[in-house]
């Protein structure tokens, strides 16, 4: 390993068929694309069925999480994930809209990007503004990790002990703080 090697936590989601391929099959197939983009797949969670977020926005999702390693910068990793999404015909027409494949870069090692003040702005953005406002730069860790059981349940399979660098909480602790009703909605396939 080189000293520039990073660990990337990535959430996977899909709720639309892709030319007759089910969301689960799309996600399973996309796993082979990580290596082509310079990542090593270190761990993969189980696959989970989860209600669409926000409620009523479309078909339910299949979600998972992976741990990747590689010599990429955070920006290059995000660009690589976007290329994989495009390969599976992901379109970006609506925030939180339906998608054939969604790859969210949740964290890169212990980085807080671009800085703590900007991270905190997006992390504390009121719910009513989250749907219409989106950052024009990479924010790490993902500002909503702690709020989403559909991210935390799969992430706990592969990175339960990862500690959020701004919140000081592990994935296991953030998951335990999620309402039990939300955790219960995330069912292993």
Automatic annotation (TrEMBL):
The gene is folK. Keywords: ATP-binding, Folate biosynthesis, Kinase, Nucleotide-binding, Transferase. Residues 10-159 form the 7,8-dihydro-6-hydroxymethylpterin-pyrophosphokinase domain. This is 2-amino-4-hydroxy-6-hydroxymethyldihydropteridine pyrophosphokinase. It comes from Tritonibacter scottomollicae (Epibacterium scottomollicae). It holds the Pfam family HPPK. Pathway: Cofactor biosynthesis; tetrahydrofolate biosynthesis; 2-amino-4-hydroxy-6-hydroxymethyl-7,8-dihydropteridine diphosphate from 7,8-dihydroneopterin triphosphate: step 4/4. Its EC number is 2.7.6.3. InterPro entries: Hppk (IPR000550), Hppk_sf (IPR035907). The keyword Ribosomal protein does not apply. Catalyzes the transfer of pyrophosphate from adenosine triphosphate (ATP) to 6-hydroxymethyl-7,8-dihydropterin, an enzymatic step in folate biosynthesis pathway. GO terms for molecular function: 2-amino-4-hydroxy-6-hydroxymethyldihydropteridine diphosphokinase activity. Belongs to the HPPK family.
């Amino acid at each position: 390993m080189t000293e520039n090697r990073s660990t990337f936590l990535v959430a996977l989601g899909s709720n639309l068929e892709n030319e007759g391929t089910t969301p689960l099959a799309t996600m399973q197939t996309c796993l082979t694309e990580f290596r082509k983009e310079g990542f090593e797949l270190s761990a993969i969670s189980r696959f989970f069925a989860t209600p669409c977020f926000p409620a009523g926005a479309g078909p339910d999702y299949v979600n998972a999480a992976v741990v990747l390693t590689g010599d990429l910068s955070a920006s290059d990793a995000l660009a690589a994930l976007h290329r994989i999404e495009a390969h599976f015909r992901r379109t970006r027409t609506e925030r939180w809209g339906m998608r054939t494949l969604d790859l969210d870069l949740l964290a890169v090692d212990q980085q807080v990007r671009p800085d703590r003040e900007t991270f905190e702005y997006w992390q504390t953005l009121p719910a009513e503004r989250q749907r219409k406002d989106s950052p024009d730069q990479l924010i790490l860790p993902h500002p909503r990790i702690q709020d989403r059981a559909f991210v935390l349940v799969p992430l706990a399979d592969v990175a339960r002990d990862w500690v959020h660098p701004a919140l000081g909480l592990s994935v296991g602790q953030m998951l335990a703080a999620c309402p039990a009703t939300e955790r219960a909605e995330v069912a292993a396939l």
